[in-house]
Amino acid sequence: MRFWKQGGGRSADRGTPRETVGSAVKEFIYGMAAHDMARFALKTRSSMEHLFILITMGDLLGVPILPPYYSLRLLPYVVPQIATWKRRMLREKDLTDAIY
After folding, report:
1. Which residues fall within 8 angstroms of residue 78, CB to CB, at 6 or more apart?
2. Separation between Cα atoms, residue 9 and residue 91, nearest integer Å
3. Closest CA to 74 of 89, 56, 50, 60
4. What is residue 42's predicted lDDT score, i.e. its pLDDT?
5. How would you classify residue 16: left for phi > 0, otherwise alpha for psi between -120 and 50, otherwise beta?
6. What does the pLDDT look like over 10-30, one tens digit per residue?
7. Rounded CA gap, 52 and 65, in Å?
8. Residues 6 or more apart whose Cβ sits within 8 Å of residue 70
9. Which end of the chain, N or C, is less packed with Cβ atoms under 10 Å?
C-alpha cells in the first residue's frame, strides 16, 4: 500500500496554502453561524421520525393509535428503524437529555 504519491512530497488531498486557509475560514464561519442550526434541524427531524413511528407502530409498545391495517401497510418502510426507535423510546430519560 502506498501512502505517498510519486512526483513530489505533497499529498493529493491538500491544496495550496491559500486554499487551505480559505477552507479553514469557511469551516470556521460555518461552525459559528450554521452548525447549531444544522444540529437542531437534524434533532427535529429525528424527533419527528420517532413520533411518526410511535403513531404508526405504537402497538409494539402497547399504544394503539392507528388501526393495524394502516400500520401493516407502512411496515416495510419502517422496519429498518424499529430497533433504534424502541431503544430510544424505552431508555431512561435524564435532565441532561433536554440540554443536549
Report:
1. 53, 56, 57
2. 51
3. 56
4. 92
5. beta
6. 445 566 777 888 888 888 888
7. 11
8. 56
9. N
Residue owning grid cell 486557509: 21
Q: Which residue is listed with cell 469557511?
A: 26
Helix axis angle for 68-78 and 35-57, nearest 10°, is 140
Which residue bears the cell 430497533?
83
The answer to whether 50 and 79 have CB atoms below 8 angstroms apart is no
How large is the greatest C-alpha to C-alpha distance in the chain, in angstroms? 67
C-alpha cell recorded at residue 10: 505533497
DSSP E strand boundaries for the chain: none
- Whose cell is 488531498? That residue is 13
* Calpha distance 17→99 (Å, rounded): 39
pTM: 0.53
Spans of all domains in the chain: 17-99
Q: Output DSSP code: residue 91.
A: S
Residue carrying the nine cell digits 512526483: 7
